[in-house]
Amino acid sequence: MNIQFLGAHNSESKDVRPACVLIDNFLAIDAGGLVSGLTFSEQMAIEALLITHHHYDHIKDIPMLGMNFYVKKERINIYSIPSVHEALAYLFEYPGKFYTNFLTHPQENPTINFTPIEPLQAFFIKQYQILAVPMKHSVPSVGYQITTPQGKKLFYSGDTGHGLEAVWTRISPDLLIIEVTLPDGLLKSDKESYHLTPGLLKEELISFRNIKGYLPKVITVHMSPQSPDREMIDAGLKQVALELSADITPGYEGLQITL
Ligand SMILES: [Zn+2]
Ligand SMILES: [Zn+2]
């Protein structure tokens, strides 16, 4: 399994993009950097796009991706929970015309083929098994475990807060791609933000190891990219890796991993 990190942050600037990974060139998760991170021909090779939740930084490239597929008279398959469809429909149906509504246009064969999914009901895209698992975020949100035909597994958390014991019981990834948005101590209570910090990641990894008996390789995404947050997150992650003897790498745009 080849994993390309097209976006590893929660914001966008010249060198950073919001959350987005591409697996084996055809399966994407989240749309924070899909058009800005890929050439047109790479975009057209995407056969399925999984979305974790409807926040802007995760869906933002969908309208433009729709346009690029529409121009080529191709369809793009998007899978997610119903709340993501509601948000997209709401945007596209804005009466003053937000953009071409690719959920319904062209009428005879709309560009976006949206499949609503049921969390915890595994399904297949090609030979890859997909399992959506509910996460702890401020809006309905799922993480995705992807299992290749060879049995390699990754889990991508999307946005989440702490308290992931129920998630860990359902998955067994070789690679854990998990959000760490903020440094420790920035908010009055880290536990109220629906995001993770290095300190909260440590607690979650301890819980993972208690439940599963091992720790997977960890790559963090959705980091706040601006100074001094970023330096504080990196320092915190180094400390956690040391304390748990864990393999933790902060993700970055252009990073590629082969499992
Ligand atoms: Zn979010
Ligand atoms: Zn986000």
Topology, please?
Elements: E1 2-7, E2 20-23, E3 27-29, H1 40-44, E4 48-50, H2 56-59, H3 62-71, E5 76-80, H4 82-92, E6 112-116, E7 123-125, E8 128-134, E9 142-147, E10 153-156, H5 165-168, E11 175-179, H6 198-212, E12 217-221, H7 229-244, E13 248-250, E14 256-258
Parallel strand pairs: 3-4, 4-5, 5-6, 10-11, 11-12, 12-13
Antiparallel strand pairs: 1-2, 1-14, 2-3, 7-8, 8-9, 9-10
The protein binds zinc ion (2 copies).
One zinc ion (ZN) is lined by residues 53, 55, 137, 159.
Number of strands: 14
> Which percent range describes the beta-strand content?
15-25%
Total count of domains: 1
- One letter per element, helices H and strands E, the order comes to EEEHEHHEHEEEEEHEHEHEE
Our measurement of the CA-to-CA distance between the termini, rounded to an integer number of angstroms, reads 5 Å
CATH level-4 homologous superfamily = Ribonuclease Z/Hydroxyacylglutathione hydrolase-like
CATH architecture call = 4-Layer Sandwich
Total helical elements: 7
Structural class: alpha/beta
The CATH top-level class label:
Alpha Beta
* Alpha carbon gyration radius: 18 Å
Structural notes for this entry:
It is a single chain. The protein has seven helices and 14 strands. By secondary structure, it is an alpha/beta fold. It has a single domain (2-258), classed as Ribonuclease Z/Hydroxyacylglutathione hydrolase-like (Metallo-beta-lactamase, Chain A, 4-Layer Sandwich), CATH 3.60.15.10. It has a seven-stranded mixed β-sheet. Strands 7-8-9-10-11-12-13 form a seven-stranded mixed β-sheet, covered by helices on one side. Strand 11 (175-179), helix 6 and strand 12 form a beta-alpha-beta unit. Helix 6 (198-212) packs parallel to helix 7 (229-244). The protein is globular. The chain binds zinc ion (ZN) (2 copies). Residues 10, 55, 57-58, 159, 222 line the site of one zinc ion.
